[in-house]
Structure formats: C-alpha cells, structure tokens
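Notes from hallway chat w/ T.B., transcribed later so I don't forget. T.B. wanted the structure written out for a chain they're using in a teaching module, and asked if we could keep both sequence and structure tokens in one place. Agreed to drop them here.
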Amino acid sequence: MNFKIKNLIPQIITLLFVIAIFGFFSYNAQVNMENRGIDFGYGFLSQESSFDVQFSLIEYDGSHSYFRAYLVGLLNTILVSVIGIIFATILGVIVGVARLSPNYLINNFAAFYVEFFRNIPLLLQIFFWYFAALRALPLPQDAEAIFGIFFLTIKGLYVPAFIWENFNIFFYSILAAIIAIIVIRVHAKKVQETQGKQLPVLWISLGLILILPLLSFLIGGVSLSFEIPKLKQLATTSFIYEGGVSLPPELIALTLSLSLYTATFIAECVRAGIQGVGKGQKEAAASIGLTPNQVLKLVVMPQALRIIIPPTTNQYLNLTKNSSLAAAIAYPDLVLVFAGTALMQTGKAIEIVSITMLTYLSLSVSISLLMNWYNKKIAIKEK
C-alpha cells in the first residue's frame, strides 16, 4: 500500500502542476481580454461566414455558417491525409522491399529515391509540384485526352463521375462480402492452428469481393453510368470542363508532395523491419519445405510488422500534421479556411486556435488508437 502511495504522489503533484499552469494562463488571458473589451465565446460558429471556398466535399457557400466552413476545412484535411497515407504506404512498402533487392539497379534506384526526397524540405517540394510541374500543364482547350476520358490541365484533373442507380444494394453487397471474408479468415486461422491445413483464403476472398457485387448488377437492379467531362467555352479565351469530377491542382500537388516525402521514411521502416528478422528464421522455414511466398507471409512479415508498425504510425501522424502546409498553396484545408480566413473575419483568435489544435489532436489520437489496435491484433501471441 505504501509503495502504491509513493508512486501516486509524484503523478498527483505533476497533474496539479499542469492544472495550475493551465489555470494561470487561462486566467491571464481572460483578464487581458476583459481589459481590451474582447468577448470570449463560441457563438460565432452559428453566424454567416460570408466567404466562399474553391473546393469542398459538401455543399457550401458564403451564406453558410462558420461551423459549416469548419467542416469544409476538416473534410478537406481528412481527404488529403487519407489519400496521402494510402499512397505513401504503397510506395513506401515497394521502395523498402526494393532496397533489399539483390539487383544492383533496383537497389540503388530505391536508395537514391529515399536519399533524394527525404533530404529536400517538404515545403519546397510542395512549391515545386504546384508552381513548376503543374503550372507547365496545358490550358483546358489545349489538353489532350488521356484514354479518351481523363483531362489533365493547369486547372486540375478532370475525371468521369459515377452515376449510380440502387447504390445502396451495391453497398450492402460489398459489406456482405467483407463480413464473409472476415468470417472465412477467422475459420481458416482456426483450421490452421488445429489441423495444420491452409485454406486458399486469398482466392476465396477475391471471389467473394468480385462475385457478390457482380450479382448486385445482374439480379439486384444496380446500374452504373459515367458522366464524361466536356469542354465548355465561357469567354473568348476562357474554357473549362463541365461535368465529371474536378480535382484541383492544389490537392494534386499536396498529395504528391506528402506521399513522396513520407514514403521515404516508411520505406526505411519496412527495410528495418524485414532486416530485423533473423536469417536463421528464413533458413529454418525454407528447410521444412515452405515456399518463398509462404516464408514471407508466415514467418518474415508477422515478425517484421512488430518492428514496422510503431515507427510507421509516427509517419502517419507526421503526414496528417504536415498537411497544414496546404495554406502555402491555397488548398482550403482546416488551417487556411478556419484558422485563416475565419479567424481574420471574426477576430476570435483564442477560440479558433483552440478548436483547430483540438481537431488536430483528435485526428492524431484517432490514428494512434487505430494503429495501436492493429499492432496488438497482429502481435504474435506466446503460448
């Protein structure tokens, strides 16, 4: 009991100290605001924002509230973070494995990529892609169609839009396929542990994810059509594509920069994880007749992931926080829309900055919790 009390006392003192510091700064800010006649409160969130945003995932214009503007910035931040994490992970794994290739050309090209992109400041890379690479693209009226349906211009990338009928049935078929795959994987794992047999989980999963959605088209009344972007003339020298989906150049430049930059660190995490598995493990697995694919899947990766996941989580957090550099190229993320334009219009610095900080904290904690859950799930359980 005394030992527990001795451990708790320093923690309680530290907590009280943090609370005291926070209380002091809060009281000091309140006194200064009262002396300057500044009101504190979050009521401004319901007021009309009176400014437009060039790119939004939800309906928005100047007649909407500041809270709606906050949602626009938040969704745009989440969009670029999710896309960046996906691309950075795929590229990082490929480059990390390539760095271990016995092929001289592949190995050195992967090493050059890592050393080149991770040693150039991220902001400079964003400027390069936005002001140098994308600004060299043709105007809409001069753009050549890619595969007849895609148009990459100085104003962005235009792609066909999906027009669905009975999309809910298609969604439910995908959901049913995912649930079935999870059940099959759990069953296959039990069979492997009890009987030592391996079921073709990959082929069964591919079959389910293809067959069930296909059935929704054949017997479920689901149909899909595409809206192709078409060139429209606004003025004598002004053209734009109408229809389809438009991806602004700011989103493209930011996604490319974040993905290419973060992938270099993920590649090193992957390389370190694979090299952290002892050579004897691979040789022992091969000696009992496992194929190279089985050695990688059953022996190397389960052990390597324990090394790869924790530092990779840090890179996901860095990518999400680095997305705030979007303000440098006017991509309407949370910082530009809410902590920028909304702050200048309302003057609610403490309120807006606190909301923005809490939002990034929540996003980071959510990513950490998800990755920690995944890390525990794949952990090798000792018996």
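Follow-up for T.B.: Strands lie at 151-153, 156-159, 161-165, 223-227, 230-233, 239-242, 245-247. Might be a good example for the class.
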